[in-house]
Specification:
By secondary structure, the protein is an alpha/beta fold. Helix content is 19%, strand content 38%. The model has no long low-confidence stretch (mean pLDDT 97).
Length: 147
């Protein structure tokens, strides 16, 4: 499971030209669910995300977690994080989990994360317009297979 985490001052998701979710200060998380992922990957990722200290303290040093700053999270499904470019220039997405099981793990991820912080989300599988005001910019990639 791969999460591309962006520290944001705000973020939103539109579907069919309608805003369906938005947050203020917090994280926009683009979440890719891979074939071999399980609920254990969800647990590892959520545990790392809620403890990740990438918000500044009073001295400006990255030392506070999203929980510490009372932040919010906007989670967007992103199967393209499974892109494989080893052969040619057209990505294949064979590493992505099939949609039904990926949707289940995506929902589990949101539920587990919402035990710690407010969570909004996009629509799994929909074409979405995602607005991100990156704060810093700070962007971190976390892969459950390396935790």
């Amino acid at each position: 499971m791969t999460a591309l985490i962006q520290r944001v001052t705000s973020s939103y998701v539109n579907v069919d030209d309608k805003e369906i979710a938005s947050i203020g200060k917090g994280y926009n998380i683009l979440l890719g669910v891979m074939k071999e992922d399980t609920e254990a990957d969800v647990e590892k990722l959520v545990n790392k995300i809620v403890k990740l200290r990438i918000f500044p303290n009073e001295a400006g040093k990255m030392d506070k977690s999203i929980v510490d700053v009372g932040g919010e999270v906007l989670v967007v499904s992103q199967f393209t994080l499974a892109a494989n470019l080893k052969r040619g220039t057209r990505p294949d997405f064979n590493g992505a989990m099939k949609p039904d099981e990926a949707k289940r793990l995506y929902k589990v991820f949101k539920e587990r994360l919402s035990a710690f912080v407010p969570v909004e989300s996009g629509v799994f599988g929909a074409m979405m317009e995602v607005g991100i005001v990156n704060d810093g910019p700070v962007t971190i990639i976390v892969d459950s297979r390396t935790l």
